[in-house]
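Appendix B: complex inputs.
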Amino acid sequence: MAKTLAEKVWDQHVVRRGDGAEPDLLYIDLHLVHEVTSPQAFDGLRLANRRVRRPDLTIATEDHNVPTTGIELPIADPVSKTQVDTLRKNCAEFGIRLHPMGDAEQGIVHIIGPQLGLTQPGTTVVCGDSHTSTHGAFGALAFGIGTSEVEHVLATQTLPLRPFKTMAINVDGELRPGVTAKDIILAVIAKIGTNGGQGHVLEYRGRVIEQLSMEARMTICNMSIEAGARAGMIAPDETTFAYLKGRPHAPAGAEWDEAVTAWRELRTDEGATFDAEVHIDASALTPYVTWGTNPGQGLPLSEAVPDPERIADENERHSAQKALTYMDLVPGTPLRDIHVDTVFLGSCTNGRIEDLRAAAEVLRGRKVAEGVRMLVVPGSMKVRAVAESEGLDAVFTDAGAEWRSAGCSMCLGMNPDQLRPGERSASTSNRNFEGRQGKGGRTHLVSPLVAAATAVRGTLSSPDDLS
Amino acid sequence: MHPFTTHTGVGVPLRRSNVDTDQIIPAVYLKRVSRTGFEDGLFAAWRADEHFVLNLEPFRAGSVLVAGPDFGTGSSREHAVWALSDYGFRVVISARFADIFRGNAGKQGLLAAECAQPDVELLWKLLEAEPGTEVTVDLAAKTVHAKDFTAPFQIDDYTRWRLLEGLDDIALTLRHEDAIGAYEGGRPSWKPTTTSTLPS
Ligand code: SF4
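Resulting structure:
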């Protein structure tokens, strides 16, 4: 029977088929752990006198809580420090490899998996974090889990699961210059809505996707969860293999050939059917920004703040009204006229080297506008090192931006990098929920190109506005 | 985990849709490393408003939350379930739950009961007309009941069975340890491990 990519990976990991009432038991190839969602899981293991079944399929990093300046100092916030210390204790006790703050391989959990070559086609990847969908860019079935599932995977290396539904997101046409993966995914979410993907694995396909780099593919898969999906996937191809080859944990020698042969099978069969299909014409896309408080509330930058009165659906109208009040925006205001005081470049969505390069290109020889602070936070210490070897740090600091160490930073209000009440940001992260970047903070989600141009002009802008 | 059969408690009308996990418990409250004490973060931003429903007697002592559609969207944080449970909620009623939230709830003994939106609206009216009204949720019969209001709710059979039996997830899986071992024996040797030595 013809199968989709997601179904193939699923079938390869079934330890035991569910017998009607019980779900399938799925084997997990890679378990990523960080300090926020793991302490109670380890606590649970200890209480039940259980061990970690496969420490060799588990890896941990510190990302959500870590400060991005002064990382050689002890963490000032006592609660953050407790979480980080607890992770260190737990990893030592249960024999799990950890990349702590300051380590050359430390970084955001979804950046380091691919970077180390641990994220591979056809693997199952889980993490107590919803943006685990990032790893689907390699043709892995990767999804976020809750803390009791973290405990379950630690103890058994498996998860009881019911098959997901499948949805094809066909992106065809030709991307215009200045339009990025971030714009594609914001447009997808605006189109299908924040629950449009519920219960589904989204498979991004089509010409435009095939032409994207691995990092751009990761940006797209990363935000699948913002469309309500369980996971996002892209079939592996030569781009994927080229990215993986030679990475520390990629197969080598004869095993590489064996692996690539297996990986080539990982594509949706001709004639396989999806539970749903969506078509996006990439030729029509322009830079996208969000105006509201969920990632589905986005529009092309060239448009204006929408008028809730014109939204037919009652729930959506209410949600738009609430969003505009929170965001302090007036319907009809051109999005380009919205002033920001903060620009954040980073996160597991857009904190990779290509993102930094793109933003640096825009900032080279320019200055961040008066009254705007720009934070540049590489997604990992490796990304930071590569950027420095290319001189990007100097481009950013010459422009007046702050150059930081790796972490989640201003993606969420959990470490010292936060918006103050009423502050407004253009942010390359993935969530614009109320208070996400700090209590009372207002977030506009944008691509790295738009972030950089916005920093220069002080209002939401694209590089085209700069000439 | 204690078996869940029926629960009766004060119903709390929460007239909001798309209640995401950042609203249920903001990120700053996630830092605790124990399993308890998360009630102080529950709806923290909203509770700062003295007119918020949980600040009003007799809703303060509520244990059955009746919310708008798309409850629990956003981050996968299980703390959202702990915050609700630690506060004293045993049941959340909504027309639609986010997948991850529903999964997390079932594992923690919090019942996520899916009711049709018109029934949710009737319940809201009832609870607002007579604050303090008790709601009874019968998991065996899959019904919600308050005064002369009765409505069915949906829950998948597996989660329902587990809630009724009070079964721990890991113990259930470990009954199949042989199958896990057999699967591991057949995994290709090129699958990555995190412990292989890093080239310097
Ligand atoms: S960067 Fe943001 S979305 Fe990504 S893992 Fe960190 S907090 Fe989560």
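Strands of chain B lie at 6-14, 64-67, 91-94, 111-114, 134-138, 143-146, 149-152.
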